[in-house]
What does this fold into?
Amino acid sequence: MERTSPITELKNVGEQRAKKLNRMGIETIGDLLEHYPRDYKDRSRLTKIADLSETDENTFLARVKGEGQTGRRGRLTFTRLQVFDDTDEITLLWYNQPYMKTALKFGEVYLFTGRMQKKYNRREIVSPEYESIKDNFAGGRIVPVYPSVDGISQKMLRSYLEEALKQVSGTLTEELPLWIRKKYHLAEKKFCSDQYPFSPYRRSLL
It folds into this structure.
């Protein structure tokens, strides 16, 4: 795969998703690599469920308690799922996403991020972001937030960037001269792609 390769060569990028990416000016792998974040969120600090805040976004580890339960509220369908840690448990809620009933596996641990709310003395988090915890999990991290469009989530964009960087690893060329990188303490582009696979941006070495 090369920088000039069409975006459809990436896994899980079919015709419909490609059209949505095209609306953001992303037609090739190179376009994707230059789709830089507009912001970053610090998810490096993990919170226990008992200490979740209503005012801030929370990142926490929790284990799935059982299979999700679905229901209907007017024209909306909803799915509720209970998760827990060693301090408490909480309800996760998704609207019009029935597949979430079985998307998270019973007994497995996931990293969740979302804002807690209280309704009728019940604590819940609506549409949290989540990711499976692998053996090499080392805690939360700072994640990029990309410009996006409806139908392309932040999670999708991060996965596309990760896959694209794997495919072009070792082929990225350096545009900035050495004297500029030294003056502003910037890493070379290869360092960025190797060390920060979710965000192809230059980091200061300071």
